[in-house]
Design goal:
Layout lengths: L4 H32 L4 H28 L8 H18 L9 H32 L4 H33 L3 H26 L13 H10 L1 H32 L4 H30 L2 H22 L11 H33 L4 H29 L4 H4 L14 H29 L4 H12 L1
Helix pairs in contact: 1-2, 1-3, 1-4, 1-5, 1-6, 1-8, 2-4, 2-12, 3-4, 3-6, 4-12, 5-6, 5-9, 5-11, 8-9, 8-11, 8-12, 8-14, 9-11, 10-11, 10-14, 11-12, 11-15, 12-14
Length: 460
């Protein structure tokens, strides 16, 4: 039986809340602790990367736990609700650091809260995405639900990307510390409300019972599913490239683009980019899908992102007094990112069928635990690269002024520091995207014909 519109809408609403939380952490935790609270950029980079190494062990274990779960509420919903409640609480605590802490105490607080945030996010994220293969047939229905969920996730990400600094300054005035604390509380409450609607509206469909594997068998299943590993590597490279830019773009506006109202230009830029990203998911991808295979669309979108980065690098060396000129590279990069989020999830979902045919078992939770892990791994690597860039180029509010009022921070930043920032957020991503194209072209074999062939074999 096909999913109803109520179920689809409720599932999509959960994605909105889930990615609002993720984007707040992924894009602003480094800025909050490093630029607002004064924690060393290198220390923060090491914390964010170490948390992702920890996830290498935590995420697959969570996949095993989900696979073994069997309650009257189903396999996925109990963990989805538990993870949401705990993650929302940790999110608020992470952005509400006690004023009395400083130095080593603040570093310890950042490390503990961020690691706990990652653990609880995994607790919720794995069961959420594992529903896709379990709730849908192969082919168009799966693509439709994936597109809807990713589009809604893009809406959540875009809302946080667009409005964060505007709301933080509206709530806290010139005190960003206060603004972030109350803003995090708002996001946490919305997150809980949206996921609650998802859990109440969606009933899990009956599935064939499977023997629950051991942790060792799980890791073996992941290693032997070569197509899942190809997608995992591609996701790491693509997301790391994009996250490096997203981590540094706020510093670009604050210390390079400049101006006393830099956060207004930053908000306008993100508003345009967020709109393009959502339209790419909801409009551009379906239009491209009518003419091209998913693999061809993958190459088109990666090429679009590379073009955007090249244009951004070129524009950075001319007069940037007008933010609208930055909309040109933003169009190519944000559009590509929107479509790629849909594509990578579809590719990963298809590897579930491939793994079932090859290994004799259907491991949705394990495969999608890889998606959770690699996305967070990419954000950790990107944050570490961004922190090195900030440290090397000596970019932080504390280094430029002791004043609390809004000023033009860019005036005191050297041209060499600006050049280092520009190169890190453009040249490195281009290199990562080229490597992703090369690996995907050489190793990925799940064409649409192959996917259909696998589905027919499994049906027999």
């Amino acid at each position: 039986m096909r999913l109803s519109w109520k179920e689809k809408a409720s599932y999509g609403l959960g994605a909105v809340g889930k990615d609002m939380v993720y984007m707040l952490s992924a894009s602003y935790v480094l800025y909050y602790f490093q630029d607002v609270l004064g924690v060393s950029a290198v220390a923060m980079g090491m914390i964010l990367l170490a948390a992702r190494v920890f996830d290498a062990f935590n995420d697959p274990i969570m996949g095993v736990i989900v696979a073994k779960t069997n309650t009257k509420w189903g396999k996925f919903r109990p963990w989805l609700m538990i993870g949401t409640l705990t993650n929302a609480a940790i999110l608020f605590l992470m952005f509400a650091a006690p004023p009395a802490l400083d130095g080593a105490g603040m570093i310890a607080y950042a490390a503990i809260t961020y690691i706990l945030w990652g653990v609880t996010y995994t607790m919720m994220d794995i069961p959420y995405w594992s529903m896709i293969p379990a709730f849908t047939r192969t082919g168009r229905e799966r693509e439709g639900l994936t597109t809807l969920a990713r589009s809604c996730a893009g809406v959540g990400s875009a809302l946080v990307t667009i409005f964060t600094m505007m709301i933080v300054h509206a709530i806290g005035g010139n005190d960003e510390r206060v603004g972030f604390r109350w803003y995090a509380l708002i996001i946490a409450v919305l997150f809980v409300a949206f996921i609650t609607i998802t859990c109440l509206a969606i009933k899990e469909k009956s599935t064939v019972d499977m023997q629950s594997p051991s942790v060792g068998q799980m890791f073996k299943a992941l290693v032997t599913n070569d197509q899942a590993m190809v997608i995992v590597i591609a996701i790491v490279l693509i997301n790391t490239s994009i996250y490096v830019t997203s981590n540094l773009v706020i510093y670009f506006f604050k210390y390079d683009f400049g101006g006393t109202g830099w956060y207004n230009s930053y908000t306008l830029f993100n508003m345009f980019g967020g709109a393009i990203q959502i339209l790419a998911m909801m409009v551009a991808y379906p239009m491209l899908r009518r003419k091209y295979t998913n693999i061809k669309i993958f190459y088109i979108t990666l090429s679009s992102a590379i073009i955007g980065y090249v244009v951004l690098f070129a524009i950075a060396f001319i007069n940037m007094s007008n933010v609208y000129i930055l909309f040109i590279p933003a169009f190519f990069i944000f559009a590509a990112n929107g479509v790629l989020q849909v594509l990578t999830t579809i590719f990963l979902a298809n590897t579930v069928d491939y793994g079932e045919l090859k290994n004799g078992r259907r491991d949705e939770s394990v495969i999608f635990s890889m998606q959770t892990f690699v996305v967070k791994l990419a954000s950790g690597i990107a944050a570490f690269v961004a922190s090195l860039c900030l440290s090397i180029n000596n970019l932080s509010k504390q280094d430029t002024t002791e004043a609390e009022q809004v000023i033009d921070f860019a005036k005191d930043v050297s041209q060499s520091a600006k050049l280092g920032l520009r190169m890190t957020m453009t040249i490195l991503p281009v290199i990562g995207l080229f490597i992703a194209i090369a690996i995907f072209a050489k190793k990925f074999i799940l064409t649409e014909e192959k996917v259909q062939e696998i589905a027919e074999q499994l049906h027999k």
